[in-house]
Design brief:
Blueprint: E1 14-15, H1 19-26, H2 31-52, E2 74-78, E3 88-92, H3 101-121, E4 133-137, E5 146-148, E6 153-155, H4 170-183, H5 192-214, E7 224-225, E8 240-241, E9 250-251, E10 255-256, H6 272-275, H7 281-294, H8 302-311, H9 321-336, H10 340-351
Parallel strand pairs: 2-4, 4-6
Antiparallel strand pairs: 1-5, 2-3, 5-6, 7-8, 9-10
Helix pairs in contact: 1-2, 3-4, 4-5, 5-7, 7-10, 8-9, 9-10
């Protein structure tokens, strides 16, 4: 493994629900929908500003020599609808389930993410050294989001009108933890195309954890991010679709899923750090195309290629889609040779309009 040493970790604050969705809700004439969305936007803004002024002390490091933990070290906290983190400790590693379903779901989701990384890729936790996994539930009042703040996971309860409890979807838990994986490896800057790659990598590993946990093949998977998170009144299936970006929801209150699925529809915007939650649909679809073309378990070949690029040390912090695509082609060749995998990678990127040659 090569290790990049070209800079410090970038302070990051990543939420599962994009700002454009909350902004749309905040303009609703129904106070039951608008008020929680406005409070969530304010809370997210404060957290985001705090991350910008608080740099992490560590830089990406290669796993040390010797044994690393083969079991997770999880600690769950209850914010009791406050915003002070981490909150009150309610469950530690090995403790019996509590009477709080949110605590138990978060505990299981953290464990499922640890298990995929270890079983499929030989990596102990998100940092490769068994980093303890911390989660806080019941954050804020009707808080419509979940986030990773560079140090821990945080889950809101949702407003019950648009969003349900954010621990209900294991891929949401894994998505946010995967931001920590990126932070400790490629350290992709959270803006523009590198930011969209950051988001896409989290969707990829979120989906892989879900598929791994359910024992699903690429063909059996729904390729939805956040299925079960939308309340019954919402016309939609999930927050995002990796298979068909732009089709996850179409609701009179929530709006229509705006994600593009190819470079022909790439969105130029200054909002949301340059559209990181929007244009992530392009590499998402490329991964889906690759995984379904190869068949079988997505984490075994398609996921391995993505993991090799993320941890290989060649991906720059400001990488665009084309750089990432070229490295996936090289990674497929290095691991599998001049075989079907490399050709499938080339075809997947071609279908979404991302070049693989300089």
């Amino acid at each position: 493994m090569h290790l990049r040493t070209d800079g410090d970790l970038h302070p990051v604050f990543c939420t599962i629900v994009p700002p454009h969705v909350l902004d749309h809700l905040s303009r609703s004439a129904d106070a039951r929908l608008a008020d929680p969305a406005r409070r969530t936007l304010v809370a997210d803004g404060l957290r985001r500003d705090r991350r910008r002024t608080t740099a992490l002390a560590a830089v990406p490091t290669a796993p040390g020599v010797g044994a690393v933990p083969s079991k997770p070290h999880r600690t769950l906290y209850d914010c009791r609808n406050g915003t002070t983190l981490p909150g009150h400790q309610v469950r530690g590693e090995g403790d019996k389930p509590t009477s709080d379903a949110s605590v138990n779901r978060a505990y299981a989701g953290l464990g499922a993410t640890f298990e995929l990384l270890l079983s499929a890729y030989g990596r102990s936790s998100i940092d490769g050294k068994g980093l303890p996994l911390i989660g806080s539930v019941h954050y804020g009042e009707e808080y419509n989001n979940a986030f990773f703040d560079g140090e821990q996971m945080v889950f809101g309860d949702g407003d019950g009108e648009i969003f349900l409890d954010f621990t209900v979807a294991v891929d949401v838990i894994a998505h946010e933890l995967a931001h920590g994986l990126t932070q400790h490896t490629a350290n992709l800057r959270y803006e523009g195309q590198s930011g969209a790659l950051n988001e896409s990598v989290s969707d990829v590993f979120g989906s892989l954890v879900k598929q791994f946990s359910l024992g699903q093949s690429a063909e059996q998977a729904d390729w939805l991010i956040g299925a079960g998170l939308l309340a019954p009144r919402v016309s939609g299936d999930a927050l995002r679709s990796m298979k068909a970006p732009g089709t996850a929801y179409d609701d009179d209150v929530l709006g229509k899923d705006p994600q593009p699925g190819s470079m022909a529809d790439y969105i130029e915007t200054e909002e949301d750090n340059g559209g990181v939650h929007l244009n992530s649909g392009i590499p998402n679809r490329a991964f889906h195309l690759l995984a379904t073309a190869l068949g079988g378990n997505s984490w075994e070949r398609a996921g391995q290629i993505w993991f090799d690029v993320l941890t290989g040390g060649e991906l720059t912090a400001n990488a665009d889609f084309a750089e990432f695509a070229r490295l996936t082609v090289a990674a497929a060749g290095a691991r599998f040779g001049a075989a079907d995998e490399r050709e499938a990678v080339l075809k997947a990127w071609s279908e979404v309009g991302v070049p693989t040659r300089k």
